[in-house]
Hints:
Layout: E1 10-14, E2 19-23, E3 32-38, E4 43-44, E5 51-52, E6 57-64, E7 67-71, E8 74-78, E9 83-86, E10 92-96, E11 102-109, H1 114-127, H2 140-149, E12 155-156, H3 161-177
Antiparallel strand pairs: 1-2, 2-3, 3-11, 4-10, 5-12, 6-9, 6-11, 7-8, 7-10
Helix pairs in contact: 2-3
Amino acid sequence: MDSFSFEPGLTLVNAFNRETFVFTTPESKDAAQFEVHLQAGGSGGGNAMAHVHPHTDETFTVRSGLLHVCIEGKIHELRPGETLTVPKGKSHFFRNAHEGDTVAVIRFTPAQHQLRFFLNFATIAQNHPEWFGSKGEPSLLLMALTLHTFKDHFYLAGPPTWVQKTLFAALAPVARVLGYRVLIKP
Length: 186
């Protein structure tokens, strides 16, 4: 690992998803962990966009509130103190399941630079809202550049991975020419 670091307690708001990230745990090779605070209607994974992490398991532990984690089309309801792991390669998304706030700890095992990936995306959402659509969806060029830079971290559920890799590789240079940037490298 290189010297990547951040101040513990770094908080970034993604207003589009009604989601706040709190980065408290340093990056390691074994695991990446952070807190996510979801307001009413808040969701994770790009406005509750079904996605996969092909090489890492994602574990959710609810601290407060009520969280729905949808895995392969089946909704799992988690209450405070409950934990659920999404196995690598499984299609999933998550969302706040009640009118109050929900706080959960998200852990990726192995780490695979997931902390950097989410820190990057949260920073971009906060600093460059113009790179997102009116409903909070990242522009295709931003997605292409980020997902090409962080290969094998995150793919949309549905389209074959090889199609996404090919598309992202073709569009990433166009994104850079048009001014899109990845702020934190893997």
